[in-house]
Amino acid sequence: MSTTDSTAGAVGAAEAARESGGTVVTVTGEVSPAALGAVLPHEHLLSDYATPHDTAESWAAVGRSRPTAASWQPYQAPLTMELLGDVGLGAANRDNWRLDDEELATAEAAALRRAGGGTLVDATAPGLGRRPAALRRIAEASGLHLVMGSGRYHPAWPAGPADLSAERLTEEIVCDLTEGVRGVRAGVIGHLAALDPTAPAERAVLVAAARASAATGAAISLSRSADATTQQRVLDVLAAEGADLARVAVGRCDGLAPRPDDLEPLLERGVFAQFDQLGRLPSVHSVSDDQDVAAAVLELARRGHAERVLLSQDVSTKAQLLAYGGGGYGFVLTQFVPYLRMLGADDALVTTLTVDNPRRLLTLTHRRAAS
């Protein structure tokens, strides 16, 4: 299918969305936004974030340090109780980076449902262990609404930059959102890595995401850039290619929690500031913790930004699962939200953060053809 044909199909589907007042695309079909309940906008049920290939260059390309000879055996070993302590302090372990057990994923999703969760966004991009049919089975078994991600995470992960073009990637994403994989459609673009718009292959990923968003109305989820100047350039590219910045979620904002003023330039662009590293154990490597995030959320709400804040955990490793002693997918609802309430958050703010904001992000109310 050509990009033009895909876009035409997306625009046709838009008419139905307008008439119904909006719709959310889940792996089991379109649902009313009112049915979502509490939403986690950035998680992973099935994924594989192990470093692709095994060269110093491939490790560096994804921002990781290759294990030394002394740590190579623990890296390759199955994740066991004996390794959990080291992994919690940042040790690399390939098995930890793989979420590939559908039965376990179903049990963890069911635990979130029992904790009061209604919807989970599995933001795993194609090529990183995404399994559309399995996600549909998990949704049906757990009772959760699951929204599937699309697009390319990073040109170096899992594929090299030589096979990328913005045109082909746009077509892939639009097809993923409108036709899906054997009928299982994606409902959001991303999650994308923190990309450098001055690097041609990384810019192509951003351009494709923006064009697909403009064609379908789907939101974009991406990681915050390391520096503010690059972040503004990323948003400039998205806007120039037709994306509505009000439908962009910028994740990994936890690192700025101790300095809420640094979030203002982001919020001024109209994007969502997404705190999605909640539930991790503090360590010497942490630049913030959940207490910093809670304080930042309340401060942003005081400044009038409550409607642009999202909360999630980005569960993407075994060590984060309940079965391995982690907080699981329910941490935000069972631990973080009660802490916010203890600090003074009322019901209205909690509902805004956990229900209203992610619902607006995911709802398709209009679509427009790409120019």
**Radius of gyration from the alpha-carbon trace, in angstroms:** 19 Å
Q: Extract low-pLDDT stretches.
A: 6-18
β-strand amount? 5-15%
Note the main sheet.
5 strands, parallel
Tally of DSSP β-strands: 12
What shape does the CA trace take? globular
The topology string of helices and strands comes to HEEEEHHHEHEHEHEHEHEHEHEHH
* Cross-sheet strand order for the largest sheet: 8-9-10-11-12
How far from one another are the termini?
Answer: 18 Å
Number of helices: 13
How helical, in percent, are the residues?
40-55%
Helical/strand content category: alpha/beta
Average pLDDT, to the nearest integer?
90
Core attributes:
371 residues; 5-stranded parallel beta sheet; 41% helix; alpha/beta
Secondary-structure topology with pairs:
Layout: H1 3-20, E1 24-26, E2 29-31, E3 38-43, E4 47-48, H2 56-61, H3 69-76, H4 81-88, E5 98-99, H5 102-114, E6 117-122, H6 132-142, E7 145-148, H7 166-178, E8 189-192, H8 200-216, E9 220-223, H9 228-240, E10 248-251, H10 264-267, E11 272-275, H11 290-302, E12 309-311, H12 331-342, H13 347-362
Parallel strand pairs: 3-6, 6-7, 8-9, 9-10, 10-11, 11-12
Antiparallel strand pairs: 1-2, 4-5
Helix pairs in contact: 1-7, 5-6, 7-8, 8-9
